[in-house]
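Many introductory courses stop at the sequence. We go one step further.
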Amino acid sequence: MLKEHVNYHHLPDKASRRTYSFRQKLLSFFRLLGKSQIEKGKNVIIGRNIRFFLTDNAKLVLGDNSIIDDSVRFILTKPNPKVVIGNQVALSYGCVIAAKSTITIGDYSRIGVGVIIRDNTHDYKKGTLLLQSDAIIKPISIGKNVWICDRAVIFPGVSIGDNAVIAVNSIVTKDVPAGTLVGGQPARVIKEIT
């Protein structure tokens, strides 16, 4: 049992060594109880005040050893919402994940405080009321070992490559190459990560 504890909490992710009590794991179990649209892996930790807004056809997959911190919002609405969160992913306080199609977050990724990831937005045009505008819906793919820093916004249709870093307060509207640091509003490549 001690070896399992060490392997889970300390070997793969030394940057955020969190140890969870039996109480936290038990509370996580009860926080997901009765939510048939959520598929949960082993040792998933669910924080307090998590809100799930899921339509009848929504699907949320949480990978093994993933951590959903306090006050995260999942808004999965029609037509075909699906969010897949990989193994050992951490979503920090106050994140918003809004899906009408597919959002995929790869293994070992870290999502900072207040990050917004949404695969839909309004197709606003001159002379059209916002309420009468169509939605732009495009899937989002976030690779493995990606670090999205605090308060970044990821827009529809973006693909972020493995080992990329998104700087604080960035607005990502275009694809991010693997192994790069991007930042700004709109985000652009700052440098390659060596």
